[in-house]
Structure formats: C-alpha cells, structure tokens
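$ fold --in a.seq
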Amino acid sequence: MSPAERPVIELGRPGDEGLPDNEAVIAALSAPTPGPMAQRLLLLHFTGRRTGRAFTIPVGAHSLDDNLVLATSGTWRHNFAGGADAEITWLGERRAARLELVTEPVRVANSYLRLIRLYGPAAQRRLDLTINSDGPPTTADLRDAVERYGLSLIDVRLLTPGPSAPAEAAAPERTRA
C-alpha cells in the first residue's frame, strides 16, 4: 500500500519488536515500588465474561478531566460493555474499580484527539498508534480509526481511595470530551 493510500491512523508502531514482553511489564508493575513505568501503565485484573478465566494485562493509564480512562483496541474491552467490576494495580497499589466501555464513537474519537494533542510527539507511543500525516489527525480521521480498528475508551471509577491521576496527563487540558 502506498503512503497516499494508507489511513491517517493505524494501529501499532514500527519498531515495537524491541519492547519488553507483557510478562516483564507485569512483573515490574506488580512490585511495591514499580518505578516511573507506573505513571503511564497500570495492571488490569479481571475475569472474562464468557470464559470465566482470570486475566492480568498491562494497560495505558490516561487522565481526561481528572478522570482515569483506558484507551485500547484490545478485544478484552468487550468485558466492560455495560460496566463490570475489576481491580487495578496502579502506582504499586491494588484497588477495586468499576470499568465501563464507552459506546459513543464521537466521544471516543474526541477523547483520542485530546490525548494526541496532550501527549504531542509521545502520543503514538502512549496510544500505540501510527499517525500518517504531517499534522495532527482530524476528528474525522479518528472516527474512521474507531470504526476501522475498534479504538475504544474505558471509564475507570476507583472504588477505594488511593493515588490520584498521573500529574503530567491531568494539568494541561480541562475541556470535556
């Protein structure tokens, strides 16, 4: 596919082959003092709705309007349609949470656009996307990616007190998605 034929947003980034595997990330984030990685990642612990199997996966933690959200295209997201209880390990603490898959495509696209603007050049790495344009993508580009790849947003409501949202993600922007 020529560069002109490629969509503006694609999943994944070239060069990801050198990143640590999930087991190494899970081990690091499970430590009592997980280090700087824990500012951007958390562990999500949940039981699959259909299989009943227990899962632990590393997921990017993001803050929009001082609310914790997860941005993903992983098929595991469907476990949170309509809301479900789970636990997260974040900043060295395991806590109960209620997660709900956001089903409004416009809100998802607008939220991704806000995160891309917020993170600047680091957005592709933080959101596991390739942006094939010289400038930022448009809302239409992100709506296309929501439909094409299943880009999704999951709202996280913590059920027990603990750490606040990552400071670098919360300060710069205060508009609603």
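$ fold --in b.seq
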Amino acid sequence: MSANHNQQRVLEFYAAFDNRQIDQALEMLAPNFVAHMVGMPEPLNAEAFKAFGMNFYTAFTNSHHQFEQVIATNDQVITCGTFHATHLGEFQGLPPTGKRVKLDVMHIDRLEQGEIVEHWGQGDALGLMQQLGIVFLPGPKLVPTLLKVGISKVLKRFSS
C-alpha cells in the first residue's frame, strides 16, 4: 500500500472513533495488532487496546481529533495534534464533570495491507487530570503563600 493510502486509512480510523463508530474503527485493526502506550507496563493486544479505548469512548463524548501534523512514510503514519471531548461519563472512578477537555496527543501507526498492526500512543495525561480537577495546580496568587509557609518551616528547623 502507498503512504497516501495508509495515511487515509489511519485518518479514517480516528474519524470512526470520533463519529462513535467504534466497530468500524476496530475492524481496521489487524488480528495480530499490538499497542505500545505510554504509562502501560507492557504492550496491549487488540482486546486490551479495545478495553483501553472503550474507557475513553464511554467517558468522553463529543470527541474530535484535530491533527496539526500528519506524516506518512511507506508503512507508518505519524499524527500529532489534540483530542477534544466532553467528560460526560465515569473515568477511572471519577464521576462526570461535564468539562470540555483538550488533550495533546501523538500517535505512530504501522500498517500492513491496509490494516493497523502496531500503534504507539502518547497523550498528556497530567494535563487531562488537571483539566478534570484531579491534580492540584497552584495559581499565581497562591504561590507567595506557599513560599512563605515553606520558608517558615525551614526557619523553624534551624531555630530549634
């Protein structure tokens, strides 16, 4: 298959996911599919990848991948961009927040005979958690207070 054909297939895969046509997306995966995901201790087979994807699929609706860069070589397609969605379902124990999120993503998909056989994926998990309100991030007004408390603790140690 040509690089252009592979690029089209990969973009169809993400469009099917975005259009909530999960069965159509999963049909594009080869039987021997393997996914390498950042933060996962080992590669995922097709079933484990489906479970991983379904976690996002059910938790985030109104999803849309927006790729700023798509690079296709003979058998690989690299996509860099953002994933936009609304958090309307439970996600890793967190009840729906109704928040619109934007997640930076980078993917490499390798194809054989028009099927995706290998996937490497990375998303900004910390940014996602911050947007959902899980990770505390001090604002500019709080930084001086945090510094003052930290310095007073250090001074107390030395004065004792």
